[in-house]
Amino acid sequence: MALQLFGYIMSITGLCGLIVGTFTNEWKIIGHENDQTVTRDEYEGLWMECEIRSSSVAICKYYNSLLHQTYEIQLARVMMIISIVFASLAALVAISGLRCSRCLEENEKSKDRTAFAGGILFVCGGEFNPDLKNHYETRARSEIYFLVLSNRLITIDCV
Asked: Which residue windows are transmembrane per the record (predicted)?
């Protein structure tokens, strides 16, 4: 019973982290300027772009349209929302299958199957998130490598 409860608490913690990760604005760092007097950071999220100036004031601007974004942002939104839906459904299903709950008390076999189904739904919800993160990181790395390579080629060409 303690192991089931621990697993359920960890799953709910993962769901909360998923929700926070979906709505955070720091999915991609667009730019960073650091003069002697002004520091400015720009971040891109799934729902808005934010700029943080040296006065530590964040100025955020929501995207004008949900459909006029790059396919990466649209894909990320869909995958994260599907993941949240699966994990939320899993939380509702799994709680009725826990040994410490009073749901389905009369039949232990159906209680075990319900807990197992909730676990499978949590796994399905979690499978959407890592693939998306890896895709987003790979895309950002390829942009950085392209910029570094093009700068080296320009430097070699000038010498």
From this structure: 6-24, 78-98
